[in-house]
Amino acid sequence: MPAPRLVAIALVSGLLAACAGSGERRDAGEPGERTTRQAEINTQLGAGYLRRGDFRAALEKLNRALALDEGYAPAHSTLAIVYEQIGDIEQAEKHHRRAVRLAPDDANAQNNFGAFLCKAGKYREAEPHFRKAARNPFYQTPAVALANAGMCLLKIPDREAAERYLREAVAVDPGLLDALLELARLNFENGEALSARAFLQRYQAAGGNAPAALLLGYRIEDRLGAQDLAAQYAERLRRLYPDSPQAAEVERR
Questions:
Q1: Could you report the per-residue pLDDT of 202-247, keeping only the tens digit for each?
Q2: DSSP state of 45
């Protein structure tokens, strides 16, 4: 199975819109309401350019936002993601840290910084940022932060703590595909094939059909002695993903 990855929306999709729309700010001299509104508009524009992959325009708008209001936390958080995308890790970390210091209750900034730290291999440092995001009662996607904490701790690996976070994530959002698949994998590796089957069935019921999941289903049913079901997974892999490494692995068996 591939290494666990952070849930995708932690980085660039829905959270940027929420981040850009947030009014979180601290200290920095209290500019006027109109100036702060202009900073917000420039941050929203910068986030839009980031989504389209126009990093130069995104940098221009976000730096403009900070020139208008240096204490506008969403601009720092979004700018940090731009710097991540262009490989300037030093600047990315600087702006992530500035964002969470300016607005410690901004769950988007906390989750984004946690994802940054996890990718940098700072797994234990990342965990409290994910946890703080998830515990914010106004955060719209707490399951994402919980799942990210679990995925991150798996890289240590701290499997017990990771599973707790992943189970909490699917309790909040029963259709969170990444968490369900990772729980299926964890249970299979722990020798609990029946539990792994149950989580994989929930993953499939929620619409998941990745080649890694089909290979895992093949392995689960093979271990349980359900050869007919294992053969069905193998056939789906060959039909849907004939050129995948997972299909090749089934062929080698």
A1: 999 999 999 999 999 999 999 999 999 999 999 999 999 999 999 9
A2: H
DSSP conformational letter for 244? S
CA-CA distance, 106 to 125, in Å (whole number)?
Answer: 17
Q: What is the pTM of this model?
A: 0.85
Token pair of 226, please?
């359900």
Residues contacting 47, CB < 8 A, separation 6+: 16, 17, 19, 20, 58, 78
**Phi, psi at 230, each rounded to 5°:** -60, -40
Angle (CA) 6-233-7 rounded to 5° is 10
Angle, alpha carbons 209-212-217 (nearest 5°): 75
Amino acid at 148: N
- Rounded to whole angstroms, what are the CA distances from 81 to 15, 89, 107, 225? 11, 10, 15, 47
CA–CA separation, 132 vs 32, rounded Å? 30
Q: What single DSSP character describes residue 3? A: P
Helix (DSSP H) and strand (DSSP E) numbers for the chain: 14, 0
Q: Which helix (H) or strand (E) holds 170?
A: helix 159-172
